[in-house]
Amino acid sequence: MKRGSWPQAILLLLFTATWCANAEDTPRSSMRKGLKAYKRGDYTNAVQHLEKTVPEFPDIGNYNLGNAQYCTGDFEAAADSFNEALRTTDLELQAKAYFNRGNALLARTTDLGGQEQIKLAAELAFQAMDMFEKCLLLDPTDLAAKQNFERAQALRLLLEFNRGKWWFDQAESLLTQFKAKDAQAGYRQAKRQFEHILENVDPDHAASKQYLPKIAERLEMLALAVEAAEFDLKTALKQIEDYQYMLAAQRLTTETDERKYAFDIKPDLKKRYEETIKKNQDVLKIIEELSNLNMVK
C-alpha cells in the first residue's frame, strides 16, 4: 500500500502469535476475520469485524478499524478512529495514527465543494497539517509526512483564498443589481478573509494583497455615495427655503447609480427624499413643466 495516498498497512503481525484457532465471537477472532476481510478487499465486512475488537484492543483495534473505514470512503469515521488510536503509548503506532488521521482529514475535503462548506474544508486541511507535523516530530525522517504536510498547507491556502474570492465576486454581482447594502457586507467579508490569510496563513500571498485595494475602493465609493446623497438632500432643502426650486428639483430628481446605491444602503434616506418631493410636488411639477417647455424651445 502506497503511504503517500493511503493509510498505513494494517499491522497484521501484532496479534499473530496470540490468536486462538478455535476462538469464535471474541475480539481476537474478530481481529482475525477483520484482517482477512481487509486483505481480500472486503472492507465493509472488515469494518464490521474490527469494530468488535475496539473494547479489548483500543489502540491497535481503532487503528485497524480506521484503515478499513478509510477504504470504504467513510473518512469522518476513519479520522475519529485514528484519533482514538492516538491514545496509545506506542510511539511508532502513534506516528502512524497521526499520519493516517491527516490523510483522512484531507480526504474529507474532497466532498466539501460548496461555499457553505469551504470554511470547514479549510479547517480540515489545517487540522491535517497539524497531524502531519506531529508525525514528523515523532519521526523527522518521514518523507511522506513532509510531502503531505506541504500538500495540506497548499490546499488550505487555496481554500482560504477561494473563500475570499467568492465573497468578492458575490459582492460585485450584487452591486450590478443595485443591492448595495448586501454588496457592502460582502466586500467587508472578503476584506476580513484576505486579511486573515495575510495574518494567519501566508503573509506574502500576492493574490490576497491585490484584492485588498480593490475592496477598499469599492467600500469608499459606497460610503461616498451615501455622503453625496445626504449632502444633496440637505442642499435641496436649503434651496427650497431660498425659493431656488429649479435647483432643488434637479438635485432631488437626479438619478445616478451612486444614488441608487445610497438608497439601498440607507432606506430611510430614500424615504426622506420621497417625503421632500411629495411635500413640494406641486411646485416641483411646475418647475419640471417649465423646464420641458424651455427644452422644446
Short note summarizing the structure:
The chain is mostly helical. It is built from 13 helices and no strands.
What would your notes on this structure say?
This protein has 297 residues and is an all-alpha fold. The chain is 77% helix and 0% strand. It contains 13 helices and no strands. The longest helix is centred in the C-terminal third of the chain and has 36 residues, at 206-241. It is elongated, with a radius of gyration of 32 Å.
Tell me the structural class: mainly alpha
Run of helices and strands: HHHHHHHHHHHHH
Strand content: under 5%
Number of strands: 0
Q: How many distinct helices?
A: 13
Radius of gyration: 32 Å
What's the rounded overall pLDDT mean?
Answer: 89
Outline = elongated
* Proportion of helical residues: over 70%
* First-residue to last-residue Cα separation: 89 Å
Unreliable runs, pLDDT <50, ≥5 residues? 12-23
Q: Largest sheet, if any?
A: none
What's the structural blueprint in terms of helices and strands?
Elements: H1 27-39, H2 43-50, H3 58-72, H4 75-85, H5 91-108, H6 115-138, H7 143-176, H8 180-201, H9 206-241, H10 245-253, H11 257-265, H12 267-279, H13 281-296
Helix pairs in contact: 1-2, 2-3, 3-4, 3-5, 4-5, 5-6, 6-7, 7-8, 7-9, 8-9, 8-11, 9-10, 9-11, 9-12, 10-13, 11-12
Question: Key terms for this structure?
Answer:
297 residues; mainly alpha; 13 helices; 0% strand; elongated
